[in-house]
Amino acid sequence: MNRRVLLALSAAFALTLPWVVVGGATTILPWLTSQVGLGYQAPSVLATLSTLETVFVTGLAVLGSAFLLAWAAETAEKDVPQAFAIAVLAVLAVAPEYAVDALYAWNAGTPRGAEAGNLAVANMTGANRILIGLGWAGVALFTIYRAGASVDPAVRNRRGILSDSVVLDREIGLEVVFLLLATLWAFLVPLNGGIDILDMVVLVGLYACYIAVIIRGDVEPDMDHVGVPAYLQHLPKRLRIATVFGLFVYSGTMIFTAVEPFAHGLEFLGEGIGIPSFFMIQWIAPLASEAPELIVVVYLVNKARSTAGFNALISSKLNQWTLLIGTLVVVHSIALGHYGVLAFDFKQEAEIWLTAAQSFFAVSLLIRFEISVTEALTLLVLFLSQVLLEFIIIRDFVTLPVSSTELLLAYTIVYVVLGVTLFVQRRREFWLLLRRTAGTIGDAMSPGDGRAHRADD
User: Fold this and answer.
1) Cα separations in angstroms, 347 against 127, 267, 283, 322, 405
2) For 63, 153, 265, 298, which has the most beta carbons within 10 A of its beta carbon?
């Protein structure tokens, strides 16, 4: 094996080993002692760690697993369509967010869980807004900044202040259209008094249709991969597939198990310095659970694979905005023991409308398949200013003439107005996008060899 590849793989696995030891001793050892009947309760190793130590150990595991996950996805591109490989990466990378949000949805179905429904929605909306407000905007700015030190074909230099832009792969048109459909439906979710079975059918159905299309796509020609993916792609096919599968399972397991104590540890640290618990659940916990995804994307951008990085972010947003919302009512109903709507209060209705409005504006930015520095900064400033102003209102640092809910509705209007303006200005490009996507879906669903060929512009 190439020395550099061996060192890279060893370093990534080494980052996860402390959590393997701690997590294994916390779960496997107590189970074994109970099976052999030793007659005493084995202590939890995790309980002996301080909050800061827990955050450190689980944070290292998340970091190492994110690299393994990215390498697995890049290697898989040799055998499956790139869009499908990225979709798998996106699902695994945001699996921790599913786990955290599912926990709140489950608690909402217990006798004392009335407030948990609000927490589930708060956590979900926070995660989705972070993905766009920090993820999309931050990665666009990082891509353009990085291009100053190296050549990146995805960066287009223009005259004028803040005019440089990141050019996106036109193959993501399918994801953009499905994301728009899910966003339009999300505006309707609060009107039914909560997340119900109809929301599940529509949103999960949208994602199922999306997967059905991309899985029938063509495997792209070999790309010029370097490092670990380049080495793994030259393995014999059976060994390569087994390696990719093993990396997906291992990294997914590490992320899934480590992120909850990582998120809760950050919550405790935040509460220790006076940050409200509800605010932590909406922002700090999702930020922790989104960490693997953001690490993977920064890794791809740093390899001058900016388009793949953006594809991963958009795919993550799509599956969170469909699967995450749609499956909450299932978890909630299982906890209840019967079907039940996941209800929430008016504040959370406003949170959903704001999240949908941000998504609507973000989609309008992608119609031309590029995002400029100005547009990225607009996304970032709108996101940060709303979070900061809400925190000021919650903590009563300054008396403002609006309530927290009114602030959410005001930002919703701003996002919608900006989005509608861009859709009108770019209506020709939008219709071309719809036609192209219709061709892609038609090719994928048509009889024949079962391979999709995305239509040319």
Assistant:
1) 17, 22, 16, 21, 6
2) 265
Tell me the one-letter amino acid at 128.
N
Identify the pLDDT of residue 113. Answer: 66
408: left (phi over 0), alpha (psi -120 to 50) or beta: alpha
Count helices and strands (H / E) in the chain.
Answer: 20, 3
CA-CA distances (angstroms) from residue 41 to 26, 27, 38, 44, 303?
11, 12, 8, 9, 49
* The pair of three-digit structure tokens given for residue 367, joined into one six-digit string: 């119609």
Computed on alpha carbons and rounded to an integer, the radius of gyration of the chain in Å comes to: 22
Q: 7 burial class (0-12, 13-18, 19+ CB within 10 angstroms)? A: exposed
3-state secondary structure of 236: coil
Torsion sign, CA atoms 293, 297, 302, 308: positive
Which pLDDT does position 28 carry in this prediction? 53
Question: Tens digit of pLDDT for each residue in 417-426?
Answer: 999 999 999 9
Q: Which residues lie below 8 Å from residue 456, measured CB to CB, with a gap of 6+?
A: none
Site of tokens 């995790």: 46
CATH code given to domain 3-445: 1.20.1420.30
Chain-centroid distance of CA 331 in Å reads: 20
Q: For 50-119, give the DSSP string.
A: -HHHHHHHHHHHHHHHHHHHHHHHHHHTTTS-HHHHHHHHHHHHTHHHHHHHHHHHHHTTSTT-TTHHHH
> Is the pTM value of this prediction over 0.90?
no
Q: What is the mean pLDDT of the chain?
A: 80
In this structure, the number of other CB atoms found within 10 A of the CB of residue 24 comes to 11
Our CA dihedral for 363, 364, 369, 374, rounded to 10 degrees, sits at -110
